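Question:
When you can, review this sequence-structure pair and walk me through the tokens.
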Amino acid sequence: MRCVITIAALAAATLPLAPAAAQSIHGYAASAARIHTGPLREYPGLRTVRRGAMIDVHGCLRDWSWCDVTSGSDRGWIAGNALRVVHKGRRRAIGAGMGVGVTTFSFGSYWDNHYTGRRFYGERQRWQSQSDRAYRPAWGEREQRKDKDLPSKSPEMEELHRLYGERGERTGEPVIQQYMGAPYRFPDHATADEQSDHLRFVPGTETATSNPQNAGTAPAPD
């Protein structure tokens, strides 16, 4: 029995230690500040914290511009310059070497984990699109969109794509929407003769008809 226990103890000692979970630290609002649902002021706001309010800091972006925090029951993001942490006995502006970990922001997982019961979550797709356009490198790796996050096509667009696809299969040629009307010309880039020569592209044809004075003699009617 003693031998078995000894072997088990040795085996356990050789196993790699699991990394410790990141822990939050206490911080304080340096001034009245708004907590948002993402690391930009354009995201929906959750609450305003007063100056000196205690906040749990879970981590900050690598440039310390925004920090992931909890105040009361709200989890969100606060501007880094509105946050202070105690370092060497004094409240100091947040930065490296103060016990605050570096974190990233991924819109989809963050909103799904913290805001599914909120009213603004009903507009998740719209905020997802805005988040994609506002992406910052400090947020971390750009998020891979899921099918449910992508905007859906309208029935009209679906039908248009279907008709274009059928036409392409019949002709064996790429389908390109044709333009009907006179092309725009910059006045400084065209001569007087060129400005009077308007081209018209007719759908279903491969040729362009020009001004009658530049065209050949039209065939006589039957």
In short: Strands lie at 25-29, 33-36, 45-49, 54-60, 66-71, 74-79, 83-87, 90-93, 200-201, 208-209. The chain is about 25% helix and 20% strand. Helices lie at 2-14, 107-114, 124-133, 155-171, 192-195. The first strand starts at residue 25 and ends at 29.
